[in-house]
Amino acid sequence: MHHLIKKFIMNKTKAIKIFHSLFQEKEKQIEEWITNEYQKFDAIPYNSIDVRNSGFKLAPVDVNFFSAGFNNLDESSLQLASKEFLSFVQNVDINIKKILLIGEDHDRNLKYLENLLFLKNILINSGFEVVVANFANQEKKIIQIDDKQFIEIDGLKLSADEKRLLTMSEFEPDFIIINNDMTIKYPAILDKIEQKIAPNLLCGWFNRKKSTYFNIYQELMNEFGKEFSIDPWLFSCESRGIDNIHFKNKDDLKKIADCVEEILNHTKKKYSEYEIKWTEPYCFVKSNSGTYGMGVISVDSQDEIFSLNKSMRNDMRAGKQGSEITSLVIQEGIPTIEKIGSATAEKTLYLVNGSLIGGFYRCNQGKNSKISLNARSSFYEKIPYQDANRPILNFIAKISYIAAGRESAFYKNEIR
């Protein structure tokens, strides 16, 4: 009995054990490999990574370029964020003094506004003059977040020659940082301006696809696996993109089902190889763009695609801001073994200027280990930098960041 329990625990933590063994043996070589990859693309100001830990594997399942949630970070993470933002901006231009932070257009989501306030304060603590604006406002608004916090949000306009972006109250920034994921369209007001902007606007969801990122991440992880003789599957999430999909069309449902079957069959082979018996393979079917956990369902077989109930079909028809879902990413499901108290949990890691600064646990009391935890019922527990700064989390964060850097460069090269 004790032997069986020991084997069960070993299988549940296999990826972590394999990585630590490799890291102890080749720490210097791994760090050199990562440093070399960092030098191949322009730095990204900030991004976040949702990480699933099943024990037998640990992998990113979502990556954002315009991350919200800075209000969920620990004080040590916020201080580190200020330091790294200063480094990032100085590398862009040492003369930058005034920063415009452009947020989402909605002003009713108080948690999101709190995120903007925290991000503003991070930049102020970096030593910059900072004003917050959005594309929708026609004039400055002051919005009360709670009893102690309020935020000013200005509107935007162009200079007379249309080469500079200003706020309605005549603030003229040296640099623009975007915290708006541009779900529907590219903001035309930014088209001809001369001020520098980050992150890359072409990483907005009007253009970006999750499947593009995961294809790039898989290529990168394959390169790492070949270099260091480690199975990439342990640190990646198998994904496939499908375009031009409509859930009312039976032929399209078959395309989805065939993709689900392909991923499930591959996952079954890997489970057999690693003697994983405590869980069964499953897939996530997700919108290929967008955030807030919208447009996500999980299935255990291809047959479930043909028998989706009305609620699940509705979930997959529209994403953020009512945008129609016609492109999907099918992902290998990674069950989470993490818990905070009795709540199911998963990590979200934050990077600024390519450095891990901390993160939080996304927790949900009413969700099981195999489904999406990103829901209104979720709550968050801070992960201080000292707890996040472990070799395996740093590794996943940095590999994910390199893939994001490659993706950002891909959009520049392919579209501009």
Written account of the structure:
With 416 residues, this protein is α+β, with helices and mostly antiparallel strands. The protein folds into two domains: 274 residues, no CATH class; 129 residues, Glutamate-cysteine ligase, N-terminal domain (Rossmann fold, 3-Layer(aba) Sandwich), CATH 3.40.50. Helix content is 37%, strand content 22%. The strands form five sheets. Strands 1, 2, 15, 16, 17 and 18 form a six-stranded antiparallel β-sheet that branches. A four-stranded parallel β-sheet has the order 4-3-9-10, with helices on one face. A hairpin with a 4-residue loop joins strand 1 and strand 2. The longest helix has 25 residues. The chain is globular and about 65 Å long. It starts with a helix and ends with a helix. The relative contact order is 0.17. The N terminus is likely disordered.
How does the SSE layout of this entry go?
Blueprint: H1 2-12, H2 14-38, E1 46-53, E2 58-64, H3 75-92, E3 98-103, H4 110-125, E4 129-133, E5 141-144, E6 150-153, E7 156-158, E8 165-167, E9 175-179, E10 196-198, H5 210-228, E11 239-242, H6 250-273, E12 283-287, E13 296-299, H7 303-306, H8 310-315, E14 328-332, E15 339-340, E16 343-352, E17 355-364, E18 379-383, H9 385-388, H10 391-415
Helix pairs in contact: 2-10, 3-4, 5-10
